[in-house]
Every structure is written in C-alpha cells, then in structure tokens.
Design brief:
This protein has helices at residues 3-26, 33-39, 44-50, 63-73, 80-96, 100-112, 114-139, 146-168, 175-185. It is mainly α and 192 residues long. α1 crosses α6, α4 (63-73) runs antiparallel to α5 and α6 packs across α7. The longest helix has 26 residues, at 114-139.
Length: 192
C-alpha cells in the first residue's frame, strides 16, 4: 500500500470514528457533515472528497473486492456449496477483525434510522447482484438463470440472518461457525 492510500484510509477511519461518536452523542439526523469534519480535524471539502454524505461513513465499499478475490482464489473443481461456505466464513472472520463495539453501533444505527434502513436495502440489492454474477460465473450459467438467482438469494439471506443473530446476541456465538451452520442449511440451493 502506497503512502497516498495509507493516508486516505487513515483519514476515512478517523472520520468514521468521529462520526460514530457524534451519532451516539447527538443522533444521526442531528449530526452535520460540518460537525463530523471539525471533529476529524478536516475541512468539509476534504470530507466530501472521501464520502458523498454522512450516510456513506457507515457503509464500507471495501468488501466487494474481497468477495470477488476470495471466490476467484477457490479451486475451480470445488463443489459450489463448499466454495460459498468457505468464502463466507472468511468474510465473517474479516468482520471479526473489526471492533465489535463499532459493529454493534453501526448495526443499531442502520436498524433504527429510516434513511439508513433504506440505504441498507439498496446496498443489499447491490450485493445480491454481485453475488448472482459470482455464482453464475462459477457455474458457467447466465446471471438471469432462475436457479442461480435463487441460490444467491438463499446465500444472502443465510448470511444476513447469521450476522443479525450474532449482532443481536452481543457478538456471541462465534460468527464464522454460525455462518458455516447457515450455509450448511441452504446447501441444497447451491446444487446447480
């Protein structure tokens, strides 16, 4: 990672940290971009170079390449159910590397603020489309194939339910194990 990228990540992490603290203190709606920028010791213009708005502070775009890269790294002859389970267990482990308090706070904000719930729903649709493409490529079928779309929806739902259960249980039990169990339960949907 180059110096410019490291600086970009440092600024974004500081903005996220300060924004979360302000959201807790003042509420999401009452917190302004100007307040977030001041708390992060940057100008509003710098804030907008990194984020389109305060909602973006809560949504990480870095996960998409992870899924694509992890799917691509799996053996081509591996059964799809095994690939999906392994990829999503690794994704869950990656989430565990983050601060649990921050994950819980983000979850609570996204669950309670209508604008964030709407944004989360849009993000989930985008993630579903990405997964449809990954699965279709993996099994050499069209992304319009009903069974491919059904499999992707099952995976997305299984992961979302495991993550929600984990978050609502104050980060217990072990998330990768819970994700593995969820993926085992939908194994039939992945027989493409």
């Amino acid at each position: 990672m180059g110096l410019r990228e490291a600086n970009r990540q440092r600024v974004q992490n500081e903005v996220r940290s300060q924004a979360l603290a302000l959201f807790v203190e003042h509420g999401f709606e009452a917190t302004t971009v100007e307040q977030i920028a001041a708390a992060a010791d940057i100008s509003p213009a710098t804030f907008y170079r990194h984020f389109r708005g305060k909602e973006d502070v809560l949504f990480h775009e870095g996960y998409d390449p992870f899924l694509e890269q992890t799917f691509a790294a799996r053996p081509a002859d591996e059964p799809l159910a095994r690939t999906v389970r392994t990829v999503y267990e690794e994704f869950a482990a990656r989430l565990l590397a983050a601060d649990h308090a921050t994950l819980l706070l983000r979850h609570r904000l996204m669950s309670s603020v209508p604008a964030l719930r709407d944004r989360l729903a849009r993000e989930e649709r985008t993630n579903l489309d990405q997964l449809v493409k990954l699965l279709a490529d993996r099994v050499d079928r069209s992304p319009d194939d009903f069974e491919v779309r059904l499999a992707a929806a099952a995976v997305n739902t299984a992961f979302a339910q495991a993550a929600q259960h984990w978050l609502e249980g104050d980060c217990a039990p072990d998330l990768p194990a819970l994700v593995g169990l969820a993926m085992d339960r939908i194994k039939g949907a992945l027989e493409l």
